[in-house]
Every structure is written in C-alpha cells, then in structure tokens.
C-alpha cells in the first residue's frame, strides 16, 4: 500500500505541483486547503503544511494536529518563505521544514526521511 501524503496548502498551483512531484516519487497524495477536522479524517502518513493556510497560521494548526491523539505521531513538515522557518517549525513541534520556493531535492529528501518508500512503489 502506498504511503499517503496530505498537502495542506491553499494555493492550488503549489498543491498540484508538489502533488505531481510526490506522486511521481511513488506516494499517494491528497491536496486540500484543510480544516483540522478534514485533516483528521484523511488519515495521512505525513502532512505537508503551509505556514499560512486560509488566513490561519499553519504553526497554530500544527500545534492543534499534535494535540490530537490519533494525529500526534503523524510527521508534519511545515513550509514557508519565512527566513526563520527552522524556529517556526521548532516552536510548533513540526517534524521538519522546507523553504519556499522549493528546492525539489530537499522537499523529496525531507518527505523520504519520514516516509521511506517501499521498493514496490519506488520510482526506477
């Protein structure tokens, strides 16, 4: 079974681009401009979370995710244009971070760190 990545991003173009990249790598991808309830219902193996999603602070949403028992072990990678993304990620207990605009190798590497691919689904 493929590992499921949720891309919580309100910019549809970014969701689609990142989604295509991760699908090409062998992941199942779901993109949304999600509420906390939707995030919990999706049951992702990893969450990519924008720092600002629908005028809500991603770090606050990250803290809310980590406070829910069924989600607390799900890795969250926050992404942002902020120069202090490392501090933001640390403060909200995110498992990792990636700068926008994306370095695609860094993005893939960060996802793989938490969701290694089963050889069955890995790209050749």
Quick summary of this structure?
The protein has about 120 residues and is an alpha/beta fold. Helices cover about 40% and strands about 25% of the residues.
Please write out the topology.
Layout: E1 4-8, H1 12-25, E2 28-32, H2 36-42, E3 46-50, E4 52-53, E5 56-57, H3 58-66, E6 76-80, H4 85-91, E7 96-99, H5 104-114
Parallel strand pairs: 1-2, 1-3, 3-6, 6-7
Antiparallel strand pairs: 4-5
Notable traits:
alpha/beta; 5-stranded parallel β-sheet; 39% helix; Rossmann fold; 124 residues
Describe it for me?
By secondary structure, the chain is α/β, with parallel strands linked by helices. It has a single domain, classed as Response regulator (Rossmann fold, 3-Layer(aba) Sandwich), CATH 3.40.50. 31% of the residues are buried. It contains 5 helices and 7 strands. The strands form 2 sheets. The protein has a 5-stranded parallel β-sheet, sandwiched between helices. Strands 4-5 form a two-stranded antiparallel ribbon. The modification 4-aspartylphosphate is found at residue 50. This is Response regulator. Residues 4-115 form the Response regulatory domain.
């Amino acid at each position: 079974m493929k590992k499921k990545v949720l891309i919580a991003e309100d910019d549809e173009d970014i969701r689609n681009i990142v989604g295509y990249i991760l699908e090409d790598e062998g992941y199942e991808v779901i993109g949304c401009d999600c509420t906390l309830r939707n995030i919990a219902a999706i049951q992702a193996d990893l969450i990519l979370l924008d720092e600002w999603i629908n005028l809500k602070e991603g770090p606050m949403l990250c803290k809310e995710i980590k406070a829910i028992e069924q989600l607390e072990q799900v890795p969250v990678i926050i992404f942002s244009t902020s120069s202090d993304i490392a501090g933001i990620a640390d403060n909200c207990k995110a498992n990792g971070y990636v700068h926008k605009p994306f370095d695609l190798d860094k993005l893939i590497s960060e996802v793989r760190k938490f969701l290694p691919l089963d050889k069955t689904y890995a790209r050749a």
